[in-house]
Design brief:
globular; single chain; mainly alpha
């Protein structure tokens, strides 16, 4: 088996990268995360928007922006997703879920170094998450690194 064939065999079962929602104690934030988990991305965006428009706490906003980023990304609305991720990481640079989502968006643009950098930030914040580990493995396969 050639090196390329061995690499293909290892990478073949790798699933697509997964966006991650984030919840806070706010009821609309929980609603957004739950809607995202049920793949109702429009409803997730609706609830997250309610949080951002009515929140007085930045941690609620950061969770909402993270969920909006994931939802817009899942819908293929890359520009809106990127803006939401930027808002999330600017409010809470310790949100590993936001960095994960931003890395996926970079990978969608084939910005492999940007994706790798953002995944590394996410891994420093929470390297034990199984979805994050799978996303990193997927990046290695997609980027050939």
């Amino acid at each position: 088996m050639s090196a390329d064939a061995a690499s293909d065999a290892i990478c073949a079962p790798t699933q697509d990268m997964q966006f991650l929602a984030r919840r806070s104690a706010d009821s609309d934030s929980r609603g957004a995360a739950n809607a995202f988990a049920h793949r109702d991305y429009d409803l997730a965006i609706h609830f997250a928007t309610q949080v951002v428009e009515g929140s007085r706490a930045s941690h609620h906003d950061a969770a909402a922006w993270t969920t909006m980023c994931a939802s817009y990304g899942a819908l293929g609305q890359w520009q809106a997703a990127w803006q939401a991720c930027e808002a999330a990481v600017s409010i809470n640079p310790d949100s590993w879920q936001a960095w994960n989502n931003r890395a996926i968006l970079a990978a969608q643009r084939e910005d492999w170094s940007g994706a790798r950098r953002d995944f590394q930030i996410a891994a420093r914040l929470n390297g034990d998450d199984r979805v994050l580990k799978a996303n990193l493995a997927s990046l290695a396969c997609k980027a050939g690194a």
